[in-house]
User: Fold this.
Amino acid sequence: MTIEIKVPQLPESVSDATLVAWHRKAGDTVARDENLVDLETDKVVLEVPAPAGGVLQEILIKDGATVVAGDVLAILVEGDSKASVAAAKSSAPAVEVTADTSSNDDSGPIKTSPAVRRLLEEHDIIVWQHPFYWYSSPSLLKEWIDVVLQHGFAYGREGKALEGKKLMTAITSGGRRDVYKEGGMRKYSIRQLLAPFEQTVTLCNIEYLPPFVVHGTHLLDIKGIIEAGQDYRRVIIALRDGKLTAEELSTFEYTNDVFV
Assistant:
């Protein structure tokens, strides 16, 4: 039986991927679950495993090509070596099988994209910019943390790649500042609610800076939006140019308080 090897479902918000490299060539015998090809997105590297043992009959898409979910990458002839080689020479109809790479745990095939790691290693300031969604963040940032901040890269005995870098959370919130305080309407301050992010960053040996926060966003007029944008720009430039130190910022609740 012949099997179509297809591009799996891509991560949320990712429309396409780049075929980085084939690990086998046409005519090679492959084992079940053996990685056949690497696909790279701006988030992760996906390994596409063989759904069965057999012979790789034909490679349809070459290295460097852009692909989308469902594209047929290659044809695999299932079975033992001799039978598969013989079948590979025939033109039997293919059965569609899509490799499942949706798993995001440590045993799954998803790995951090080299491009993402390179960007993190090349820059000293990291900013997580997102709405304060349900007192946390949208799921997309959580997925990024799960996929990128992996053991052996971001933390653990050998995970020193991000050591000494600085990270700031930049968030928008519909609630006013006065409701986010210990014992207040929301019971906790923004800084207290961001504690899981701070602890994650600390585990990775990254210095967590006070957040940049824009409150009452649903009430902001054009003037208020422009002013918030200008404040954000000033903070980013000051961090980039080394004009704001972690020691100086530690005395402020929010980073944007520096310019008040």
Q: What stands out?
A: The first strand starts at residue 2 and ends at 6. The CA atoms of residues 232 and 256 lie 7 Å apart.
